[in-house]
Amino acid sequence: MPLSSPVPRALRHTRAIQVDAFARDDGLWDLDARISDVKMRDILLASGLRAGGAPVHDLWLRITINIDLIIVDAEASSDAVPYPGYCDTIAPAYKSLIGLSLTNHFRLRLKDRLAGVLGCTHLTELSLVLPTAAIQAFANDVIKTRDGDGDDASTEQPFQLDRCHALRVDGAAVAKYYPRWYARSVTG
Fold this sequence. Notes:
Protein name: DUF2889 domain-containing protein
Helix content: 10-25%
Pfam family, one: DUF2889
InterPro entries: DUF2889 (IPR021312)
Number of strands: 6
Shape: globular
């Protein structure tokens, strides 16, 4: 269902975030993430005039992960920044992501390593989407979701159950699509 019709308005800014996941030939995975900010009109920055339609930010972050969702390599790049020669010098700091687990307190450890002046606000914010992007990339490839597999004899609950509102084990979706794992709610 789409959003409601808006009142008349004018587009002033677009932020885009994209993450592409790649299975590598060596068994590792790359997540290539990009964040861009574009103003629709000319703006005057402290560093000079930025033409409307030109990115204020165009930043890249690649992490390489193993099948245990541990970051084994990381690199950052800044193609457009508001303060050239300053913003674009922080890329090496993102090597500090190496060794972090995307599923074990990643966001907390990310802040310890790259929050505030330790990193770029925008690259660090981009990093926040990496755990869920990795899980989506791994679904039905590395992580077996067992969607549509009624003959599954596994004793392990499918990964995705109890990880969102729709797939709560006492909910209607689980009763319909994963009846074996359905657990009626006991209310007192």
